[in-house]
User: Fold this.
Amino acid sequence: MNIGAQKPKDTGPAAHERIYRGLRQQIMHGELSPGQALTLRGMAEQAGVSMTPVREALRRLVAEGALTLSLSGRVSTPELGPERIEELASLRALLEPELASRALPRAHVALIERMQAINALNQEAAERRDAVAYVRTNLEFHRMLYLRAQAPAILAVVETVWLQLGPSMRMLYARRDQPAPPHHHRTIIAALKAGHEPGLRLALRADVTHGLRQLMG
Assistant:
């Protein structure tokens, strides 16, 4: 046995899925900056895997719009202009109220209490000016509700939008001079408690559109 031999790098499907899920989460939560380049070799060395699972993970994320691939082969996070951000926000405003409406009949007390706890963490992240934690807890707040909708196809589309927006939302929030507490989250929670579907739709739409305008203003 050669004690000095290096351990073979993982090349299997488990490694590919681990790389994909981890990088996907980083992008969605804004842990990577807009336009940040990613290299096969660097990612493989960091994760202790061969380049094959990294290549497959990047290919999937490019297909989802979470990463961009230039003609020269450079892979990076997207750099979105104001018009593209507005377009994606419009998609959120269309789809997320529908998910919330479908979730409303299953919005039990324990769910609402958990959403309140996440919203408290979101508020703390705003006060600390922790942009990554703010984006992460904001998405957790929404996703917890949308999982109750039992509409996986709609949620998958929404998560693709979140993926594309993640780095830009982190950048926009980090640029703000003052923290921006999630005012509309309390309205969402109030509508859930009241079982008021029109109010819930309105609160979701306001959270998506008004929040974005504040960040871009």
